[in-house]
Specification:
This protein has 494 residues and is α+β, with helices and mostly antiparallel strands. Among the domains are: 103 residues, no CATH class; 148 residues, Aminopeptidase, CATH 3.40.630; 70 residues, no CATH class. The protein is 43% helix and 14% strand. The chain is built from 22 helices and twelve strands. The chain has a nine-stranded mixed beta sheet with strand order 4-5-6-7-8-9-10-12-11, with helices on both faces. The chain has a three-stranded antiparallel beta sheet with strand order 1-3-2, covered by helices on one side. Strand 5 and strand 6 form a beta hairpin. Helix 6 crosses helix 7, helix 18 crosses helix 22 and helix 19 packs across helix 22. The N and C termini lie far apart (62 Å).
Length: 494
């Protein structure tokens, strides 16, 4: 089939996203080949648009960025910038043309170039780029800066904070690299083709999924893990997104879960030096027929998990509810959690994307309930309107009100209502207010505070040790066996 010419940026973007959806949710092997053939041509298509002086700025929109042949400018964290530069040294550079915070370079460069203090801070309009040029030799400007910060006598967090203080704008020329959204694929021995209509939300039961058989899990070797973590970082960065777990992954323990229907989930925690003080942290990305379609973040304490679920815009019509339910099954299986919480941001609080997609009703129809009584009353009124008026949709103003509350889903294994008033921030503030001067470890502080509420608490040393163990899963499982500690923590956090 000949590849049609498209001379408009908007039309070319729509074609790209349609082809990418077809590649992830094909109806036949032929549909996969057709989608790939056209997607592999996109760098040439972009070059043709560039030659005709078409405005390419629409390709930098976060919903569609990362198409082969395009570029993007973004402020990346130190860890992400280092990893991207290590893999794409010729494609990543400082975006001097658009970087408007050069005044921030002085405090950083004085650590690398002592003589810069003859220029800064006593002169106006210091030519920082000339200073870098005089020192970098054959290295690139960005490479010299990253290497210089890496050599400073600072710990990992100190180096990260120093670089991040620059708000340094980088330009990434994606070109026809395999990392582009057009070309990024994981190899699959056999694709899953949809010969029947896609599963709808009405076809999905969270309770049934949680009670289903365990998913097949495989722990990746370190080389396999490093490769998939690089793909995950690329996929996220080209969409201007950084997730804590993608920036600081534990490469020693990456698991692959085969969820079925062509979906693979790669799931991992963070190493001890990057763990949170109280909650266990895990993150993951999920792929459909080898194409990355979204990511997830899970913060767990006892049997409660806060889940941040993000499906990329292109795939919103592709069995979203089923994928979400399989993720919850994975968390139940690996982490032992049975109560799932969603932050208001995920459903629209100061989040236009979630409001536009009607995220609240996605969760509500899967069984989530709001914790705020006023929001619960509003939900009841809206649902009665839906029964009276087929096709009724909540207004944007109403969706904004619905997004003011946390929402919660409890499986049949969870006691209803016990986590309704709990907030981890309340717990952390309680520990902070009762700060114990001779105990710097926040978890030990919490345990001593909890012991004041439950004097019979014992066997807690293993819980503290587990936070520095090879995997936070053991930490969670130990918490889940300690009913007295759970009661004290619930009281403190509620």
């Amino acid at each position: 089939m000949p590849i049609p010419r498209v001379a408009d940026a908007g039309a070319l973007i729509r074609l790209h996203e349609s082809l990418l959806f077809q590649r992830a949710f094909p109806s036949s092997p032929g549909a996969i080949r057709q989608a790939d053939r056209q997607l592999f041509s996109f760098a040439r298509r972009i070059d043709r648009l560039r030659d005709t002086h078409v405005d390419l700025s629409p390709f930098e929109d976060p919903a569609v960025s990362g198409i082969a042949g395009t570029s993007l400018s973004a402020v990346f964290s130190y860890e992400v910038a280092r990893q991207l530069f290590a893999r794409y040294p010729r494609n990543l550079a400082i975006d001097w043309e658009n970087y408007e915070r050069q005044d921030k370079l002085g405090p950083v460069l004085r650590r690398l170039l002592p003589l810069v203090e003859e220029d800064w801070p006593v002169e106006a309009h210091v030519p920082f780029r000339d200073w870098i040029g005089a020192a970098k030799g054959q290295a690139s400007e960005l490479g010299w800066l990253l290497d210089g910060i890496a050599a400073l006598p600072l710990d990992a967090r100190g180096r990260s904070d120093l670089y991040d203080s620059l708000d340094l704008l980088l330009v990434w020329q994606i070109e026809n690299a395999p990392a582009s959204r057009s070309l990024l694929r994981l190899p699959l021995p056999k694709p899953y083709c949809h010969r029947k209509p896609l599963l709808r939300r009405a076809d999905v039961s969270i309770e049934r999924e949680l009670a289903g058989p365990p998913l097949r899990l495989t722990r990746l070797s370190r080389p396999e893990a490093q490769k998939i973590l690089g793909i995950i970082l690329d996929s996220s960065a080209m969409r201007y997104r950084e997730l804590y777990g993608f920036t600081h992954p534990d490469a020693a323990r990456v698991i692959r879960a085969d969820a079925g229907r062509g979906v693979q989930i790669f799931f991992f925690g963070v190493p001890p030096e990057w763990r949170l003080p109280l909650r266990a942290y895990h993150a993951g990305m999920f792929f459909k027929n080898g194409v990355p379609i979204g990511y997830v973040e899970v913060l767990s304490l006892f049997e409660r998990a806060e889940v941040g679920f993000n499906l990329y815009y292109t795939f919103r019509e592709g069995e979203t509810a089923w994928v979400y339910a399989r993720l919850l099954r994975l968390f139940r299986q690996v982490l032992g959690v049975t109560c799932f919480s969603v932050d208001p941001y995920q459903i629209g609080l100061e989040n236009d994307e979630a409001l536009d997609s009607g995220a609240f009703w996605f969760y509500r129809k899967l069984g989530f309930r709001p914790l705020d009584p006023a929001v619960a009353q509003l939900v009841g009124r809206e649902e009665r309107k839906m029964l009276r008026k087929p096709g009724y949709r909540s207004s944007r103003h109403t969706l904004e009100k619905l997004a003011r509350s946390y929402i919660l889903l409890e499986s049949s294994a969870c006691v209803p209502g016990v986590w309704d008033r709990f907030r981890v921030r309340n717990l952390a503030l309680a520990v902070e207010r009762a700060r114990i001067a001779d105990e710097p470890n926040p978890l030990r502080q919490l345990l001593r505070l909890a012991k004041d509420r439950e004097p019979a608490l014992d066997h807690l040393a293993a819980i503290v040790a587990a936070t520095q163990g090879p995997d936070e899963v053991r930490y969670l499982h130990l918490l889940q066996r300690h009913a007295r500690l759970r009661a004290a923590v619930l009281q403190l956090g509620s």
